[in-house]
Write a structure and sequence with these properties.
The chain is mainly α. The protein has 4 domains: 1-153; 164-328; 388-462, no CATH class; 481-500 and 560-699, Alpha Horseshoe (Leucine-rich Repeat Variant). 70% of the residues lie in helices and 1% in strands. It has 37 helices and 2 strands. The protein has helices at residues 2-7, 10-20, 27-39, 41-49, 59-82, 90-101, 105-119, 124-135, 139-152, 156-163, 166-169, 171-184, 190-201, 207-221, 224-229, 232-248, 251-256, 258-273, 278-295, 306-313, 316-328, 335-364, 391-400, 404-420, 422-427, 429-438, 448-462, 464-475, 482-500, 525-541, 565-574, 590-606, 613-627, 633-649, 652-658, 660-676, 680-699; strands at 507-510, 550-553.
């Protein structure tokens, strides 16, 4: 009977009858019962029939049918209003709200939104019916309904037609649109942001809310606490919302809040540039440039380096903005927004072309005068500068020579010279390490940074202990730039990697045992013929089912990192909490702290099977415990990498014997990170560590 009831369209008749009833004493209770039965009918039928219900009661079939019934009822309400008769729409609003809050927005709004779009195009009565339909939804269900309409509207103009000034009339809808969907959530697509902010911009009564939203977004964007603690996905979401808001602003609105925009830009770009995550710094520069272009239409605007901007243009954030925003906004609806956005990206895309033109002009500026006759250089030969052959000669060239060609030849040959002369290098290793650490590029030599780094690694691997002591002591010394301190960390890691690996790759041999053979005495050719005949007979009568695979047998060699691991590791971990005048790892230099933590993780990993690995692991665990609540996500990622390296390198027996209590506390902390850390990479690393710890326990 119920199946026939639905198939014959009686649901619309039921809804229409309730809409016609006047408010009576027993009516609310009856409407509540009807509401529950109408919305939950598929669940009730499925419970009674234990899952063997007819297809018409499947949710994917029932709720589109219910949406069609609602359209029919709204049509009757429209006819009644045109005829001068009163009727109520609240029951239909309650049905819509409860269906949406049960998670069936897709099914019911997939029917309602397209039909309401067509009906409200040119009919003011249908527009008022649609507005009233949503306004009568109870506050406890309003969020689900508004979110459903925002997600399924094909554009801001359609959303404005369907919702009207709902955000002005209803406080709950205003909170959802201006607060929850923009500041508390960040999983919505760019199209949803365009619908939402475009809707606020399309009516004079709602534009005040657009200005308010932009101010709150900028306040969050320029907050150092928010930049440190919120995940990169949320910061990207907020940045996109700010850019879309900026392109909706009018000149008069910009003029009224120009100073506030400038203040937010200066504070926000500083917070973003202080971040250790490259994508956060990029977002800060993109938004700052957009704000500057908006508030300084006549004067100079903020511009970052061409190379940096081109990196932004290749990033995922800009690709999303370029594809989603320009393609979805309709010029006929908001022409000034589209033109501004397209102009912004055309300007950025033309940056590389302009830089290429400047480069060509620079190259050809000496050839402007066509009257000058060029020299004939066809027979010229390149003069080859002989590089020094002694280490001390290299030191003299690098410290005092004015011959730039000789200086270039020396820096190119230094690494190979150091490796060929280890004894001579050990005599001046610390002095040479000091020169290389302070060495600056005097000429435009290609790959200078890499050449210098490789020479430093060669010196460190040739004489590890004194050079490592020097470099680790200089890391915490005064009057060094952050770049030099990070160079020290890079050199230590590369040298430790080289020292911990075997020096030769061995020789290839077959997996099978030695083959028996007959040793023949040297004799005449007949003996060779005899051997050949026997081999051919054996080969012809031998059946082989499989052949052994050749494998590489690594030649055994002592681990050179074993005796020096402590000299690389312990000095770096000692003074991290002592601030200097120009260097504060626990303060503003948190990016270098992140690099230090990652370096310690790599050194711990490379120290596997060394004598000092247990002591290193215990010290590293104490170091991690002291910094586990650091606000910077890059530092926390490094700390979790340290835990991974520790679990891999330290033998499991030593872990449980020497660090039982520390491991239990670490396990509890990792559980908190998995549940509460705002950074997705930190949560994944913590989960991997927990799984690894469980596997270790099972093995033991």
């Amino acid at each position: 009977v119920l199946e026939q009831f639905l198939q014959e369209g009686r649901m619309s008749a039921l809804l229409w009858e309730v809409c016609q009833q006047p408010a009576q004493a027993g009516s609310p209770e009856l409407q509540e019962v009807l509401l529950n039965r109408v919305v939950c009918l598929p669940d009730h039928v499925s419970n009674k029939l234990e899952g063997k219900n007819p297809p018409v009661f499947f949710p994917q079939n029932y709720f589109p049918l219910l949406g069609g019934a609602i359209i029919q009822v709204l049509q009757k309400i429209s006819d009644s209003l045109r005829g001068g008769l009163d009727c109520s729409i609240s029951f239909v609003s309650h049905v819509l709200g409860k269906v949406c809050v049960h998670g069936r927005q897709k099914e019911i709004l997939g029917v309602l939104v397209p039909r309401l779009m067509d009906l409200t195009k040119s009919d003011c009565i249908w527009q008022r019916i649609c507005w009233r339909l949503i306004e009568c939804v109870p506050d406890r269900w309003m969020e689900a309904v508004v979110l459903g309409f925002v997600q399924r509207a094909p554009g801001a103009d359609v959303l404005s037609r369907l919702l009207g000034n709902l955000v002005v009339k209803n406080k709950k809808a205003q909170f959802v649109v201006t607060q929850k969907m923009l500041l508390l959530q960040y999983g919505h697509t760019t199209a949803v942001l365009q619908n939402l902010l475009g809707y606020l911009a399309l009516d004079s009564l709602r534009r005040a809310l657009l200005i308010k939203v932009l101010q709150e977004l900028l306040e969050m964007w320029s907050s150092s606490s928010a930049v440190k603690h919120s995940p990169p996905e949320q910061q990207q979401y907020i940045s996109k919302a700010i850019l879309i808001c900026l392109f909706h602003l009018k000149e008069t609105e910009i003029e009224s809040c120009r100073q506030e925009l400038l203040t937010s830009m200066m504070e926000g770009v500083k917070c973003h540039l202080d971040s250790s995550l490259p994508q956060i710094r990029r977002l800060g520069m993109i938004v700052a440039e957009s704000i500057s272009a908006k508030i300084n239409t006549d004067g100079p605007v903020l511009k970052f380096q061409v190379k940096v901007i081109m990196e932004f243009m290749s990033g995922e954030f800009i690709r999303l903005m370029r594809l989603n925003y320009i393609n979805s906004l309709k010029p006929c609806v908001i022409p000034h927004v589209t033109l501004l956005f397209i102009k912004c990206f055309k300007d950025c895309n033309n940056i590389q072309a302009r830089s290429d033109q400047v480069l060509l002009l620079d190259r050809g500026k000496d050839c402007i005068d066509d009257d000058l006759i060029p020299y004939d250089m066809s027979e010229d030969k390149e003069v080859k500068i002989k590089a020094p052959v002694y280490i001390r000669d290299c030191i003299e060239v690098l410290t005092g020579s004015e011959d730039m060609d000789k200086w270039e030849a020396t820096i190119k040959a230094l690494e190979s010279l150091v490796r060929k002369n280890p004894e001579a290098t050990r005599e001046v290793s610390v002095e040479l390490a000091k020169i290389l650490l302070h060495l600056e590029e005097k000429t435009c030599i290609e790959g200078f940074v890499e050449l210098r780094q490789r020479a430093q690694v060669a010196v460190l691997t040739t004489d590890p202990i004194p050079v490592a002591k020097y470099l680790t002591s200089q890391f915490y010394s005064l009057n060094y730039s952050l770049r030099q301190r990070m160079d020290i960390l890079d050199v230590l890691v590369l040298a430790a990697q080289e020292l911990s690996y075997p020096k030769s790759h061995g020789k290839t041999k077959h997996s099978g045992g030695p083959k028996p053979c007959i040793q023949l005495l040297p004799g005449s050719d007949s003996s060779k013929d005899w051997r050949r005949i026997v081999d051919e007979r054996i080969k012809s009568k031998t059946r082989r089912f499989a052949t052994g695979q050749s494998q590489v047998e690594l030649a055994s060699s002592p681990n050179e990192f074993n005796s020096v691991a402590g000299h690389f590791f312990f000095p770096l971990i000692q003074h991290f909490d002592r601030p200097l005048t120009t260097f504060d790892l626990l303060g503003e230099d948190h990016f270098v702290l992140g690099r230090l933590v990652h370096t310690l993780a790599v050194l711990m990993y490379l120290a596997v099977n060394t004598m000092a690995v247990a002591a290193m692991g215990k010290a590293l665990l104490e170091f991690v415990w002291a910094l586990r609540f650091h606000t910077d996500s890059y530092v926390r990622q490094g700390l979790l990498s340290c835990i991974s390296s520790l679990l891999i390198s330290v033998p499991a027996e030593r872990l449980l014997e020497d660090m039982t209590e520390e491991l239990l506390e670490t396990q509890s902390w990792l559980g908190d990170v998995v549940e509460k850390d705002p950074d997705g990479d930190c949560r994944r690393l913590a989960l991997q560590n927990l799984l690894f710890m469980e596997n270790l326990k099972k093995k033991l």
